[in-house]
Write a structure and sequence with these properties.
Structural class: alpha/beta
CATH topology of the largest domain: Rossmann fold
GO molecular function: GTP binding; GTPase activity
Shape: elongated
Organism: Talaromyces proteolyticus
CATH superfamily of the largest domain: P-loop containing nucleotide triphosphate hydrolases
Order of helices and strands: HHHHEEHEEEHHEHEEEEEHEEHEHEHEH
Bound molecules: guanosine-5'-triphosphate, magnesium ion
Number of domains: 2
Number of helices: 13
Strand content: 15-25%
Protein name: GTP-binding protein Obg
Distance between the termini: 39 Å
Family: Belongs to the TRAFAC class OBG-HflX-like GTPase superfamily. OBG GTPase family.
Keywords: GTP-binding, Nucleotide-binding
CATH class of the largest domain: Alpha Beta
CATH architecture of the largest domain: 3-Layer(aba) Sandwich
Strand order of the largest sheet: 12-13-11-14-15-16
């Protein structure tokens, strides 16, 4: 592992003020220079004197960040408990009145998008999520206990789409309607055979009692009142904001009636009660649309993971070889003074930002848009970041070319996405047939792809995202000229004197800053949160 030379970075300091805090910011930066200096992640803040050993760790010193951006989960709402068949038993009362309690209702499933989560892996591991079943009613008119509710918490930026559902109440309603449509009113009153499966009998009854008991006519299956606040089918939710309160996804089913409900003059001691309704099953697809506020884009070994470590509490893996990082790592920059007071004044007074997230995305390679290297999956992660931070290694080659090559990949991906919206999911297998043999046409089915997979979520094009450049490894010798050239190039792009590196005329041309840093020494990184905040607040 290459240890950086211990020389300080004399050339860095003049640049820091002129580049990070460019014109509109310069005044503000001067006024807030004190605050600017204090602004740093919770990690660096708590270290005095600074211990930088975590920025150049042993390859084995890392914590695993389990990342999952997509999963399919089955949700089963709780079914209702059965009603109870019971009669009052007391001394001197031989044949007491019915006193069976109603069944408890099933548990509901709620969803809430919360800040602070960044992956769907916990949800993905569950596979099937069941709310509690309502308990059956009991004697002495005691109702059954409710089933427990389930709250699913997902990261902000999760999109939920329905793949399929099975609703026993809807099935029951349909069955009931077709059954009623086929007979007259009187017949319906008498004919109860079709509804026998909705009753429970007195515990000591024989199965044959089902045939001899005269059951009353029941209406269609019942729905709980809170089902009215379920989202409309098919479910499509875009949870892009932190939710203060959970939202109902599927309501638990109602419990059955106890036997006192069926008392009539003809049958004062009914020996039956009704079953609870069945809970709904939902198959939902969860996908993270927003990965993080900022995505670090760069070639392998550029120093993205080191930069993430220097900015946040992340313990992502670092190594002097390519493809050290294989899945995104997300770190959070906390912008408070440790006592809940903000260090950056947010222009949004009502809901000020207290921090933001940065994703270290695995390195891109040339032709990544053709799915080379670790390919399209990672371009999709880049597509999901709000702001792009291009990490360019000043010590290897021409940084302008590096930046142009990175943009070229992103630009090609944007173009490809526009022309073939479902290209990333298309079947890429080669269909080969031996010469002279004409194969019979058959449906090629990719077993790895779920049958009812949904189309990818539509995201805005990459070239419209705000971006800036982090020129890293500035502590290495001979990097100064490279940085000066890069800064001049960006100024020209901003003025429109040269073509935007994405090759797109409508691309983002706001303030284009280049920040020289030495991530390994945590030098120059303190201005980055301020710069990112200015982007987050104005775009
Ligand atoms: N001198 C110097 N070396 C650095 C700096 N930042 C990172 N490095 C070194 O560069 C090498 C690669 O760093 P990583 O952070 O793993 O690079 P990466 O971009 O995450 O690489 P991949 O995960 O493979 O894409 C490591 O040996 C780091 O110690 C820096 O600012 N100065
Ligand atoms: Mg890495």
């Amino acid at each position: 592992m290459s240890r950086a030379p211990s020389a300080m970075l004399p050339f860095l300091y003049p640049f820091l003020n002129s580049t990070v805090c460019t014109r509109p910011l310069a005044l503000r930066a001067a006024q807030k220079s004190l605050r600017c200096r204090r602004l740093q992640s919770s990690v660096t803040r708590s270290q005095s004197p600074p211990d930088l050993s975590h920025l150049d760790p042993e390859p084995s010193d890392y914590s695993r960040f389990i990342f999952q951006d997509k999963c399919t989960v089955t949700l089963v709402a709780g079914s209702g408990g059965h009603g109870c068949v019971s009669f009052l038993r007391e001394k001197y009362i031989e044949e007491g009145p019915p006193n069976g309690g109603d069944g408890g209702s099933g548990g509901s499933i709620y969803i809430q998008a919360v800040d602070g989560l960044s992956s769907l892996h916990k949800l993905a591991r569950q596979g099937v999520i069941r709310a509690g079943r309502g308990k059956s009613g009991q004697g002495k008119s005691r109702g059954g206990k409710r089933g427990h509710d389930v709250l699913i918490q997902v990261p902000v930026g999760t999109v939920i789409r329905e793949i399929g559902r099975f609703d026993p109440v809807e099935e029951g309603e349909l069955k009931f309607r077709t059954w009623r449509a086929s007979m007259s009113e009187e017949e319906a009153m008498e004919m109860t055979a079709n509804q026998r499966d909705r009753f429970v009998l007195y515990p000591g009854s024989q199965p044959s009692d089902f045939l001899t008991t005269a059951f009353p006519s029941l209406g269609p299956p019942r729905r709980p009142h809170i089902a009215a606040s379920e989202p409309a089918a098919p479910i499509h939710l875009d949870l892009s904001k932190n939710m203060a309160e959970p939202m109902l996804l599927t309501a638990g089913a109602v419990g059955g009636f106890g036997n006192p409900h069926f008392v009539s003059r003809a049958n004062p001691r009914p020996r039956f009660a009704t079953k609870g309704e069945g809970g709904m099953t939902l198959h939902l697809d969860f996908e993270l649309k927003l990965l993080a506020d900022v995505g670090l884009v760069g070639f392998p070994n550029a120093g993205k993971s080191t930069l993430l470590r220097s900015l946040t509490n992340s313990r992502t893996r670092i190594g002097n070889w390519e493809f050290t990082t294989l899945s995104p790592n997300i770190g959070t920059v906390v912008l408070d003074n440790g006592k809940g007071r903000p260090l950056v004044e947010s222009s949004n007074k009502e809901n000020p930002r207290t921090g933001f997230t940065i994703a270290d995305i695995p390195g891109l390679v040339e032709d990544a848009h053709l799915d080379r290297g670790l390919g399209l999956g990672f371009l999709r992660h880049i597509e999901r970041a709000g702001i792009l931070g291009f990490v360019v290694d000043l010590s290897s080659g021409n940084p302008i070319e590096t930046l142009q090559k990175l943009w070229h990949e992103l630009g090609e991906y944007d173009k490809m996405r526009d022309t073939q919206p479902d290209a990333p999911d298309s079947d890429r297998r080669v269909k080969w047939s031996p010469s002279g043999f004409e194969p019979t046409p058959m449906l090629v089915h990719d077993a790895s792809k779920p049958q009812n997979s949904l189309p990818p979520i539509a995201l805005p094009p990459i070239y419209r995202k705000p971006w800036f450049v982090i020129a890293t490894k500035a502590d290495l010798p001979g990097t100064q000229e490279n940085f000066v050239a890069l800064r001049e190039y960006l100024a020209q792009v901003q003025q429109g004197a040269v073509e935007h590196p994405s090759g797109n005329k409508d691309a983002f041309r706001g303030r284009l800053a280049a920040v020289p840093v030495s991530a390994i020494k945590a030098e120059g990184v303190k201005g980055i949160p301020n710069l990112i905040m200015s982007f987050l607040e104005h775009h």
